[in-house]
Amino acid sequence: MADIATKDELELLLEQKFEKFAIRFLELLKGPNFSQRKWLKGAEVKEILPLSDYRIAEMRARGLLAFQKIGGTYYYAVESINNLINSKNK
Description:
By secondary structure, this protein is α+β, with helices and mostly antiparallel strands. Helix content is 57%, strand content 13%. Strands 1-3-2 form a three-stranded antiparallel sheet.
């Protein structure tokens, strides 16, 4: 029989997962590949954070992620991602 999680348990699990990805993101930004970059491609954002293409598009539409589209490629502002992570950690 499957266990049923409470809302509080799910929120705690989500917070823990988000913290894990936030730490990974910050570590990657300090690395040689990301330290001087201001923009990341969508695929790079998906490597760092557990977001689907749909979720990234939704966040773009809601104004949560600053972006630029060049040709057919979306670029996301590193500062915008940092702000999003910092707002979730408060």
